[in-house]
Amino acid sequence: MSALLGRQAIHALKALLELAGDPGRWRSVNDLAAAQHLPAPMLEQLLLQLRRAALLEARRGRLGGYRLARPAGAIPLADVLAALGLGLGSEAAGAGRELVGGAADRVAALMEQRLRAALERELARCTLAELLYDLRSVSAELSDEGGLLLG
Fold first, then answer.
1. What pLDDT is recorded for position 52?
2. How many CB atoms lie within 10 A of CB 122?
3. Distance (Å, rounded) from C-alpha 97 to C-alpha 43?
4. 92-143 tens-digit pLDDT
5. Which of 73, 69, 15 lies closest to 44 in space, CA to CA?
6. Count of CB atoms within 10 A of residue 76's CB?
7. Which terminus of the chain is more exposed, N or C, with fewer CB under 10 A?
8. pLDDT at res. 88
9. Cβ-contact 116, 95 below 8 angstroms
10. Helix, strand, coil share (%) of the chain residues, nearest 5
11. pLDDT, average across residues 23-46
12. Burial class, 52, CB count within 10 angstroms (exposed 0-12 / middle 13-18 / buried 19+)
């Protein structure tokens, strides 16, 4: 589990990747939870947040559930984190604080700001489709056939 992203972000991404693998199919919370070995009550709360952010569509009924609201290539990871309230907001992350202290403290603070900005750029650039490609590549590599996914 990634300490950088946190448990909620990882669980949400796992569910989103499950949905991205078959984008037209409606999936129930229990189905997604079982497929990714996640607790259903917690996953339901995450999916509701993603629906409120217009990343997911929801439909009630026996054939209902959740599906992506737009193509996986149009869902940047920054939007997922923001929907969960896990974005790298400048105030929460300390990017707006004054540079105080000695020269070494100021250099360390500037480096932290540069790293945060680079992470924000990468999260805005990387989409769910890219993670899905990575998932399929790793799955093929780990399969018994030791397959390689090209293209």
1. 96
2. 12
3. 35
4. 444 445 666 789 988 998 999 999 899 999 999 999 999 999 999 888 888 7
5. 15
6. 18
7. C
8. 60
9. yes
10. 60, 5, 35
11. 94
12. exposed
| pLDDT above 50 for 1 | no
pLDDT tens per residue, range 46-80: 999 999 999 999 999 888 899 999 999 999 999 99
Contacts 24+ apart (CB under 8 A), 130-137: 131/13, 131/17, 131/20, 131/77, 132/17, 132/20, 132/21, 132/72, 135/17, 135/21
How many residues appear in the chain?
A: 151
- pTM here is 0.80
Which among 129, 29, 24, 124 has a CA at the least distance from the CA of 67?
A: 24
Q: Tokens 């489709």 correspond to what residue?
A: 129
Cα–Cα distances (Å) from 23 to 57, 106, 109, in that order, read: 11, 47, 42
Please, which contacts does 110-116 make with residues 24 or more away whose CB atoms are closer than 8 Å?
A: 116/88
